[in-house]
Design brief:
Elements lengths: L3 H43 L6 H9 L4 H13 L6 H9 L4 H13 L6 H9 L4 H9 L2 E5 L9 E4 L4 E13 L10 H18 L3 H6 L2 H8 L9 E16 H63 L4 H21 L5
Antiparallel strand pairs: 1-3, 2-3, 3-4
Helix pairs in contact: 1-3, 3-4, 3-5, 5-7, 8-10
């Protein structure tokens, strides 16, 4: 009996230690819970933006940052917006920027701009900066055309009189929240405005008319509805600067004249070469005919010798022919040009 008593004492002590360890773990977990969630719960409670303790624990298990959700809900409630913690948590789990969406909704409400929670979340998840869009709706944005980051500093166009004009425009736009999803960006606005400026200057009869009334460019470009299909609404297009460039028409005419000169020179050179070749052919024909004459003259002595042998030519006939040749040569010398 005495040997069993120490064993029972040891077992009792071990059980007590285990119970104390479990209680300690529970107390430790409770303290962690109190440290992590109770402060947020009290903060939401006193701000009249209640978030249940169960919801906070569930956020922790769902890998959601409770502080972001609670602070965003407090901010929305204080601004007069009724956004539940479930809505905020859903957008957080969708990889959305919850604080920025809440700030955008508050800014839109203050500016009397109609913006629904679902629309703001869709814009944020589409990759657009919803807060910047709301701010652009309230405070219109000015876009330089061409953009300051591009290599070209001006939009160059040529009027019908051949004079080049260099223009710079400033486009004032306001974000169109209804077309923000799927709408074209600033680059499209810049490209369309540049195209409109080039078309307007190109259709002008004279560059002087454009310089006298540069506002006509703005009127024509605005009338084309360049903001269709974009995320912006164009409020105004102002021509910031317009300068006279080169005389493109005269330069093109000069280049054309130079090209024509080279073409005519080539054609003349071709005709000269053909004439030289034809002259060489004629010289070759003359030399050929002369050779034939020499060959024919070489036949004369043999023909005369043959005539002597056959008795067809006498010695007196031969002397008469020589006298005639001598007289002919003398007359040629007398009639020829005087020697210097």
């Amino acid at each position: 009996m005495n040997s069993i008593t120490p064993l029972l004492t040891l077992a009792t002590n071990a059980a007590l230690i285990a119970v104390l360890a479990i209680v300690g773990l529970i107390v430790f977990a409770f303290l962690i819970f109190m440290f992590r969630f109770l402060g947020l719960w009290i903060q939401a409670l006193v701000s009249n933006a209640r978030v249940g303790l169960g919801s906070l624990v569930g956020m922790w298990f769902r890998k959601v940052n409770p502080r972001v959700i609670v602070l965003s809900r407090i901010q929305a409630v204080k601004a007069g917006l009724d956004i539940s913690s479930d809505q905020l948590e859903t957008h957080y789990l969708a990889r959305g920027n919850v604080p920025r969406v809440v700030n955008a909704l508050i800014a839109a409400d203050r500016a009397k701009i109609e913006l629904e929670w679902d629309t703001a979340c869709a814009i944020d998840l589409a990759g657009r900066d919803i807060l910047d869009a709301v701010q652009t709706s309230v405070n219109p944005k000015v876009i330089d055309c061409p953009h300051s980051g591009t290599a070209r500093a001006t939009i160059d166009a040529v009027a019908q009189d051949g004079i080049q004009l260099k223009a710079r425009a400033r486009v004032t736009v306001r974000a169109n929240l209804a077309r923000l999803i799927g709408g074209a960006t600033e680059e499209t606005i810049i490209a369309r405005v540049g195209e409109g400026i080039v078309t307007t200057i190109g259709s002008a009869q004279s560059h002087k008319a454009v310089l006298e009334n540069p506002d006509n460019i703005s009127k024509v470009v605005l009338s084309k509805g360049l903001d269709a299909g974009t995320a912006f609404e164009i409020l105004s297009i102002d021509i910031a600067d317009i300068d006279v460039g080169e005389n493109i028409g005269a330069k093109l005419q000069s280049d054309q004249a130079e090209a024509d000169k080279h073409r005519f020179q080539a054609e003349a050179e071709k005709r000269r070469a053909m004439a030289v070749a034809l002259e060489q052919e004629h010289n070759a024909d003359v030399a050929k005919n002369r050779a034939l004459v020499v060959l024919a003259e070489a036949e004369v002595p043999r023909a005369m010798a043959e005539a002597f042998r056959n008795g067809n030519l006498g010695i007196m006939d031969y002397y008469k022919m020589k006298n005639i040749q001598a007289d002919t040569s003398m007359r040629d010398n007398i009639a020829g040009p005087e020697s210097k």
